[in-house]
Amino acid sequence: MAEPTPDSGELDAARRRLAARQDALLAALTADGPVPEGFDAVRLRVQRDALAAKRAGVLARVAPELPAILGDGYRPAVLAYVRSHPMVGGYGQDAVAFARHLLTGDRLPDRATRRALEAWLGRRTTRPRGRLARLFGKNGG
Q: What is the pTM of this model?
C-alpha cells in the first residue's frame, strides 16, 4: 500500500517551519540570537565563538591594515562587530563595513586612530581593484 502524499499546503507549511528553524539557528550562530529549542546552548555558544573568531581572522588577512591601525583594540572590536552584523557580500566588503561601523559614534580610542582608519577606508573604497584596473592604470594600480 502506498504512503499518502501530503498536499501542497502541507508541504508549504513544512517548508516555512524548516526555514524559520534554519533562520533561528543562523541567528544563534552568527548574531547572538537566542538558542533555538532542541539545541545544546553550550555547544552552540562554542560554535558561535569559533565562527566569530574565524571571521575576525579572515578579516585580518584580507585587510591587515585594520589590526595594525587598531592595535590591541582590533580583536574585541571585530568580535563585537561580527556578533551583531551578519556578513553581507564578501570579506572585502565586510572589512569596509567594519571600518565604517567603527567610524560611526564614539568607538575609536583617539583622533589619530580615527584619521588612520578614515585614510584606509578612503584608499580602500576609491581605488579600483583587480587586474584590469592595474592594467589601465586607474587610481593607483
A: 0.73
